[in-house]
Amino acid sequence: MRRLYLAAATSSVLIDQAWHLIFLALTGVWTMAPVTVTVGLLLQGGAVYLVARRLFAPIQRFLAGAASFEEAQRPITQLPLRTAQVVAPAALGVTIFRLSLGFILGGPAFFRPTVADFISLCIILPVFYFTYTYFVVSDYLSRLCAFIFRHYGRNLELFFGSYRLKLIVALVVISIAPLAATIVDLFSYADDAERLKLEITTDVSLALIGVLITGYFIGRSLLRPVRILSSGMSEVAGGDLSVQIPVISNDEVGELTGQFNRMVEGLRERERIRETFGRYVDESVAATILRRQGDEVLAGETAEATILFTDIAGFTTIAEHLPPHALVKALNEYLETVLEPIRAHGGVVNTFIGDGLFASFNMPLACADHAAAAVRAAIAIQRAVGARVFGDEGVALHTRIGISTGPVIGGSVGAGQRLSFTLLGDTVNLASRLEELNKKFGSRILVSQSTREACGQRFAFQALGEVAVRGRSDMVAVFSVDPNEQERTP
Description:
Elements: H1 2-9, H2 12-27, H3 33-63, H4 69-77, H5 79-105, H6 115-152, H7 163-188, H8 193-237, H9 252-280, H10 283-291, E1 301-312, H11 315-321, H12 324-344, E2 347-353, E3 356-361, H13 370-386, E4 399-415, E5 418-424, H14 426-441, E6 445-448, H15 449-455, E7 461-468, E8 475-481
Parallel strand pairs: 4-6
Antiparallel strand pairs: 1-3, 1-4, 2-3, 4-5, 6-8, 7-8
Helix pairs in contact: 1-3, 1-6, 2-3, 2-8, 3-4, 3-5, 5-6, 6-7, 6-8, 7-8, 8-9, 9-10, 12-13
C-alpha cells in the first residue's frame, strides 16, 4: 500500500515532464532541456517522494501492527490534503525556475514570458497540481480504506474534507484555469502573432491533457463512495442486514457511510432482539411490542378476542414414569405440534404454562372471525395430537382445550426493567376454567356460550348445560365440540 501511495503522490512529475516536453517540441528549443527536466525531476519527484514517505510513516506503522488505528486515523484522513500541500510548493518552485531561466541565462525568447504570463502561470500551475494530487491521493485513499476495512475491520471516524468544496475546486480548476491562461496570453502577446499562436496552441494542448487526467480522478474520488453507499442501501432494502461497507472518503459522504453502517448495525441488533424475544414469546407479539415506542407499550387496550387454553391430560402421572430428558423431548415435540395449528389459523401464543399454553385470537394481532378461527385451531390440534406419539418413548399425549370469546385487556405489565405482555379479563379466566372442566365432562374441547354464538351452526356443538365456574357467581353455559365432525357451511 505504501508503494501505491508514493506512486500517487509523485505522479504529478510525469504530467509535468510530459507538458514540458510538449512545450519543448512545439518551440523546438532543446538547449535548456537537461537543466529544466532535471530540476523538475528533483523537486516534483525526489523532494515530494521524501516528504511523502514521512507523511505515510504513521500509517505504515499501523499496517505493520506497531501502532493503533486511532494513532493512524488522523494521518489517513488528512493524507490527500497534506500530500497536495507538498506538491503545490514543489510545482511552484519548478515553474518559477523555468520561467526565470530565460531571463537569468539570456535564453531564447520563448523562455521569457511577460510579467502577466509569469504571474498567471505561477498561480495556475501550482493550483492545478494541488487539485490533481488531492484527487489522485483521494482515489488512493478509497483503496487504502477498503484495504484496512477488509483486513483490520476498521472504518474512518474522522472527517476533515468537504464534498461541496471538492466539487467547487474541481469545477473551477477544470473550467476556469485553462480559460484564464488563454485570456492572459491574448493580452500578453497580442502584438506578436506567431508567439500568440504558439502560446495558445501550447495552452490548449496542455489543458486538454490536464482536464482529461484530472477529470478522470475527480470523477473516481467523488462518485465511487456514492456508488458503494448506494449499493449498500440496495442490499439492505432487499433484506440483507449483514451489510457493512467501507468508509472510503474523508468528507460528508464518508460520514454518511459511517452513519449508514451504524443504522444497519442497529437494525441487525433489533432483528436479533426480535428473534431472541420470539423464542420466549410468539414472534408476532414480540414484533408488536418492538414496533411500538414510548408509553404505548405500557398502555392497556381492550378488544374483542377469543382465548384458547390447552393442557395435557394426566401429565403428572406421565412425568413420574419418564426420565427427565425423555419427558422434555416429548413435551417439546408436543408443543411444536400444538403451535402449528394455532399460528396457521391466525392465533398468537402468549405464553407457555407448564405442559400447556395460552393463545389468543384477535389480540394483539387482528384475526377475522376469531371465534371460528380458535375452534378450527382446537379441532386441528386434537386431530394432529391424536394421530401420533411423542418422544423416544412413544408417549401418547391427550389434550384438553378451553375456549372463550369476549372483551380482553392487553398490555405490558411488570416492574422496573422486567415487563411481560399479557392478556387480562374475565374472558381469559373463563377459558382457563373451561379447560379444567374437560375433566368433569370427559371432553376434549369446551367453549363458552359467547364462542358458540359467534360460530353459529358451523361446528358440531353439544350443550352440556350450565355449571358453576370457580371465580364466578353466576352459572355458565358450556358446550363441547366434536373434533371428528366436519365444519358445516354457514
